Amino acid sequence: MTRPKDDGIVRRGEWIGIGNEFSGVQLRKVWTPQGERLEIVVPKRGYRILLDAMQLEIVAAQQPGKFSELFAVHLGSNDGGVEHDNDNVPGDELGDGDR
Q: Which conformational region is residue 35 in: left (phi greater than 0), alpha (psi within -120 to 50 degrees), or beta?
């Protein structure tokens, strides 16, 4: 996934990182003409997303089990025969922004 040349960011905060033995992410606050966003980057895989306050509120409202479901879709698990339709998951959620 390539970074857009004009992502609209006018100011960038300092990076912080969170990681474990399986993954690592970097986060920072950025400012765009449309307001503040949280930029999340997974350097190892080249994933990147900008989320506004409403989008972050939706993430925060999820039950932890919802993320397990997303992991299953992303990793191709079929949860005991139940197939997941990846066409219903936007490319950025699959980590495939060039889809």
A: left
pTM listed for this prediction: 0.67
The vertex-17 CA angle with 36 and 98, nearest 5°, equals: 65
Backbone dihedral angles phi then psi of residue 22, each to the nearest 5 degrees: -105, -30
Residue 36 tokens, joined: 């503040």
To the nearest 10°, the Cα dihedral for 6, 11, 12, 13? -170
- Structural contact between residues 45 and 95, judged by C-beta atoms closer than 8 angstroms: yes
CA dist., res. 50 & res. 92, Å (int): 10
Tokens of 1: 């996934």
What mean pLDDT is predicted for residues 11-30? Answer: 96
